[in-house]
Amino acid sequence: VCKVAVLISGSGSNLQALLDASAQAGAPFSVCSVISNKPEAYGLTRAAEAGVTSSIIDHREFPNREDFDQALIAEIDSCQPDLVVLAGFMRILTPEFVRHYSGRLLNIHPSLLPKYQGLHTHQRALDAGDSEHGATVHFVTEELDGGPPIVQAVVPIKKGDTADSLAKRVQVQEHVIYPMAVTWFAEKRLHMLDDRTQLDGELLPRNGTR
Ligand code: GAR
């Protein structure tokens, strides 16, 4: 099976979705390591409950991004994963880190990329008066939130929505599409080729896919 390392910073609900999917009979992947940059992240408890090894690499203990990322790489590579998955990991990674895992590094972002890269995506979608919003799983490249998309989930924006109510609706879908994308990768159906996503032998569009 495909070995997956998961990086988190917080609640870890996407980690939970991956742990649940990996526990299904015949699952093509298993989570070999969970790494958090925050000691208090609830996702660490989820890892412990699933019997998965976890570790904390606190970015505040490093003088700069390069040293932090080198420590991350050392910890990740100690389990020799086939895939590295960012699941609510809220640190920007150095080009060296991204290159080290090129083609085997995934992220989930809470917007319909290329819309709303960066933070506060739910509030920005509300402020713009959008009628729909969602989440995107993408390969990570050196361009922040700009790597080739793999799968998107769309949700309606409803009257009276707040950033919180919208985030909840989006997260339900995140928990569907992230295990799906990781399963495709584990089944060797998903590749990054020349900064494009290839799924089942077909190149996907660069600017969003549904
Ligand atoms: C998720 O909604 C994810 O899309 C978002 O953080 C949340 C983490 O939740 N990621 C980003 O904003 C990345 N820039 P979780 O810890 O419960 O999985």
TrEMBL record:
Keywords: Purine biosynthesis, Transferase. (6R)-10-formyltetrahydrofolate binds at residues 65, 90-93, 107. Signal peptide: none annotated. The keyword Plastid does not apply. InterPro entries: Formyl_transf_N, Formyl_transf_N_sf, GART, GART_AS. SUPFAM superfamilies: Formyltransferase. GO terms for molecular function: phosphoribosylglycinamide formyltransferase activity. It is an enzyme of class 2 (transferase). Catalyzes the transfer of a formyl group from 10-formyltetrahydrofolate to 5-phospho-ribosyl-glycinamide (GAR), producing 5-phospho-ribosyl-N-formylglycinamide (FGAR) and tetrahydrofolate. Belongs to the GART family. This is Phosphoribosylglycinamide formyltransferase. It comes from Microbulbifer epialgicus.
